[in-house]
Specification:
With 227 residues, the protein is an alpha/beta fold. The protein has one domain: Rossmann fold. Helix content is 36%, strand content 31%.
Length: 227
């Protein structure tokens, strides 16, 4: 099953009166269960691709489909609903809500989906166990380490059981030991849940864990290899 498909994808930005060509005719396809890393230097276009695949930005030309649905031309509301139902996000800055506890942060996406209180409690407890955070339900982000906060972010991404999880530099703010533990956790979840993971990274450790490595430079794909 194809989860994301980009065809001749182009993204241009205006910056200080100049046009920045972030993506230049990218063709990529990701299938269910992929565990893939898009690697490249800063400014190569890897994060731009994730933002387009995650319906966080709009393309300039070409097409990109998520879950078989072409996102070009969708309204802001339609894009928001597509994100809400189909995509989980893991950011390098965690993006947790500071006034909410771990369980409240994790359950928030389900609240947006209109899930009942008992379903939210059950599913939050399940993912807390999956990411090894049982006993920390009531802690707020400031009471947790960076690695624990990233586990909360992973649990939040998983709780709605999306087909696709996009992880933008997920190890950037973690030391190597914690980063390796987080990657091993995501590998296990990919294998047990069949969730597609797409990373943007320049971290060799992420590339070592990925089963597919796509190298991008100056907005164009240089190579696409399966291990």
């Amino acid at each position: 099953m194809t989860v994301v498909k980009a065809e001749n994808l182009v993204k241009d930005y205006g910056l200080n009166g100049q046009t920045v060509h972030a993506l230049r005719g990218v063709n990529l396809e990701f299938r269910g269960g992929d565990f893939a890393a898009i690697a490249g230097p800063s400014g190569s276009g890897k994060s731009t691709f994730l933002h387009l695949a995650g319906c966080l930005d709009t393309l300039t030309a070409g097409s990109i489909s998520v879950g078989g649905r072409n996102v070009a031309g969708l309204s802001k509301r339609q894009l928001a609903l597509l994100r809400r139902h189909n995509i989980g996000f893991i950011f390098q800055a965690y993006n947790l809500i500071p006034v909410l506890s771990a369980e409240e942060n994790i359950g928030f996406p389900l609240t947006l989906l209109g899930a009942g209180k008992q379903e939210i409690r059950d599913r939050v407890a399940q993912v807390l166990a999956q990411v090894g955070l049982l006993g920390m339900e009531k802690r707020r982000p400031k009471e947790m380490s960076g690695g624990q906060q990233q586990r909360v972010a992973i649990a939040r991404a998983l709780v709605k059981r999306p087909a696709l999880i996009l992880a933008d530099e997920p190890t950037a703010n973690l030391d190597s030991k914690i980063g390796r533990e987080i990657l091993e956790l995501m590998t296990r979840l990919n294998q047990s849940e069949g969730t597609t993971f797409i990373f943007s990274t320049h971290d060799q450790m992420v590339m070592d864990h990925a089963r597919r490595i796509i190298r991008i430079r100056d907005g164009q794909i240089e190579s696409d290899e399966n291990k």
